[in-house]
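Q:
My hope is that you can spare some time for a protein that puzzles me. I hope you can help me see how the letters and the tokens relate. Thank you; the sequence and its tokens follow:
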Amino acid sequence: MTSPKLDLDAIHAQLDGSDATAIVRWASEQFADGLVMTSSFGVQAAVMLHLVTRVVPDIPVIFIDTGYHFPETYQFCQDLTDRLKLNLKVYQSPLSAAWMEVKHGKLWEKGETDEEKAKNLELYDQMRKVEPQRRALRELGAVACMAGNRRGQTEHRAALRHVEIVDGIYQVYPILMWEKPDVHRYLKANDLPYHPLFFKNYASIGDWHSTDPVVAGEHERAGRFKGLKQECGLHLPTTPEEEGSRDASGL
């Protein structure tokens, strides 16, 4: 499905100040069957899943199974899928976790310097996250994808608008302007659960080997990637260098 050419500046002006439900409704009307959403089934995943499926009940929900999620994440995913009747679409790397470790080792442990460690994490992300998500978007005929990014989460996200375009796919962020108290209020008002590890001081949850609890006062993503980076790669545009890294991975 071909993405329509949209004036992002005009859309920004149109949506500025709109509430999250109105932005979801706009995206549904604009992109119709070309609209999907992604979820990592992290700490506050229930917010976006509930918010979006109230407007678009059968929207495809893409979950990238890296093979390294916490057991609690898989259970949380299943519980929310059953409760919200999600149209869940699970995608994985064609290279199994065990096979990847044979070919490349435990990439999250490799590297002598921070630069080497970061490079190995980027290779890991390309294989286990980015390639499966690109394939999901392609196979599902996605024109636009909704995600729960918020400006307060990372430096990259702080500069986002409600609608951006990344690698030819429109990205829609309905709760971009929400702060943590807004998230908590929505969960409470709709009797929605947190990820179980939230109660063990995990503020942002990814793979078990690259996620740690945080202490009081730390940024919510301080426990991700041992402080080497903030983003997992799924919300960043591709660079030629990243394309080369993926080709070199054997995929």
In short: The longest helix spans residues 114-139. The first strand starts at residue 35 and ends at 38. Residues 38 and 62 are 5 Å apart (CA to CA). The mean pLDDT is 88.
